[in-house]
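Ticket reopened. Same input as before:
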Amino acid sequence: MARLVTILVALLAVPAGFAQQQQQDEQFKKAGVCARCHVISVVEWGMSRHSHVATDCLACHGKSEGHVIDERNNVKPERIPHGAAVAALCAGCHSEGCPKTKQKTGCETCHHVHALVNPNQPPAVRNEALEKRTVQWERYTRQMAAGEQAMKARQWQAARAALLSALKESPGDRRANELLRACERRISGRVPGFDNAGGAFDDATGLPREVRVSGIGIPMVLASGGDVDLGSDRFANARPVHTVSVKPFYLGKYEVTQAEWTALMGSNPSLPKGDRLPVNQISWEDAQAFIKKLNEKVPGAGFRLPTEAEWEFAARAGAVAGASLSDVACFDQTGAAAGPQPVGSRKPNQLGIYDLQGNVWEWTSSLAKPYPFDASDGRESPDAAGLRILRGGGYADSADLLDPAMRHAERPNRAFRWNGLRLARSVPD
Amino acid sequence: MENRVTRRNFLRSSGAGIVAAGLGASGAGARAAPAAEYRRGGMVYRRLGQTDLYVSLLSFGSHTDPADRRPGGPNRTVLSEEGQARRDRIILRAMDYGVNLLDVYETEGQWEPTARLLKGRRDKMLVSLAHEISARDIDNACRLFGHVDLYRFHTADIDSQALHNWDVLRKAREAGKIRAIGIATHIERTMTVALDELEGIDYLFFPYNFIHARADYSQFLPAAISRNVGLIAMKPLASGSIMKLDPRARAGMKPEFEDLQLWQRRNKPILPAAVAELTRSLDRMPDETLCMAAMRFVFSRPFLSTAITGMFHETLLEDNYKALTRYREMRPEEHAALSAASRLARLCGDAWLPPHYRWLEEEWRA
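Engineering reply: fixed in the latest deploy. New output:
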């Protein structure tokens, strides 16, 4: 008997399940493109009565075409109503105010912004911690928005205050911390170990775009960091293509010249000789010795070689669209390149960096390990044994070796006449 | 780089953290090791070191027939029209036999004629080049051949120039222009040094035949085998001079056949016992020449990927192919013939070798 009852219940449940599924499908159809990402919101909207009276996402958020096509969610919807703006939208239909309380403001106190909570059917269990956290979230987003707006308006002190408030709501928040650091850098206007060279600042990081090493004068350019697709299917050792996040860093505007090398090291191993020619015939170990001396001379500056991810970021982010390679790089186009050219002889890339491709190969700090690139897997350890990566191609190479994805591994004690270096340093905290 | 906090993450951060269930990277089982050798038709193919190339045990050498050479510019010769046609015909015949490695010298004017010959057949032949090492020369070779399968340079020592050349070759391999890179050297010590100093070396060319088999006792051989570096034997017939030791050398084997006969007649009186012993040994293997036995000796060495030899005449190609198709354990009478020939060569000093190949006796005599 019990078995029979079970079967009957199951048979009844199946059509009910179908009906629920059909209802949800209908909601998703109505929600249109928004349902692709905002699944939970659409389900919540379907639970409220708004879905029945055709009040859809567009009514409150606008068409938001930019938001719809932006997969990385950098573009916000056209409108994100808060507080009084929500009440104003509600008043579009409920002109008499709340049907129950007749209140015309503070609708979201009972109904939340998506009218999730139907006062006629209150949620079975009230989650007070969640409600408190929701309020906290709204305060956080308000402060963050105010901070970002102030940064756009270059009101650095106001932005700093707003971001500090946001951090109170969400301590340790990465984004808020980054923006706060950018504000503070912008307020102080100085980077330790550097003299500001150009006067222009990067809004995202608050750092000067171009600087010179104090007392030495080596110019460096800011690469503001971001995501970069490393690798290429063209080269066996550059597969697979993968995305890596690179933090902001400074990169030498030019390859280190023979004059700069000689001034610090007292001797010049390069061939041919020339003050403005890039230093060459140096090993990775020689480059490390140079950097060690430089760091002793400029305390706290933290000079180093770029990682190969940083190098490729600078090469890809700085690529000049439509420019021919020979405009920006010195390489063996006709078999006539007899040697390196003075640094800066060609045009700079979009970041303002010269000779990133061509002239001399540039040592990176990275060990020659297979991709994907992971800076935490020991490949950036200065003491680890193994081959180190060179990037960029040289004056004696043909164009395909100047590809930004081309990786060449060499023993750290080997010095060839087409290998040089370019300085890098992390952005100070 | 986008650190923006989403509402969902913000709310979630107040609750319990999400426990990510890490799936252990379970080993998908050890990869089956690729075969070291396989046979197709009569030809045997062996893997070249750690590369993905399989080369025929008999390879076609680079030297062109001196009788057909003409000056073709500074330090360069070319073949006469007739000589080129003969060489092309022998190469095509070798391809029919399954030979899939062809060594080509530009100093003997062979890059362009070979590229023309291989048009439409490039997938059936691996091209091995040895030339000056510069990006321009490599690009030029790629323009002619599409890509280069093997590229090497010849060096007496691993000095700074050799290291520079090696750097250029490695870059070309990393860029996908060359599939395997190596060196050729006539000096045993250089090979040992090369294994340590030349990063990522794929193969070594070295002299090896039954008389000049010092490699069997060398340091580099076990080192190369343990590092799985491909080994290619050159001079398996000591630049054709082993034929000179054969009292039964057939007419038409080499253009200088008349010279051979003359040399035999001149030397016979002073080496009667040794020549008689060799003749007796050869009589016991009537279907085989001394050169075939010499090639069979080289083919029987398991550590070699291939033996590369110049073939100026179709009969020589056929003999080499026959020696290969009989590929099995060497017979006692073959060993006896090779020992007799070795003794005869020793009695002759280095006079049986052309003057520019006498280094073989100094460096490689076992």
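Residues 81-97 of chain B form the longest helix (17 residues). Confidence is low (pLDDT under 50) at residues 14-31 of chain B. Please confirm and we'll close it.
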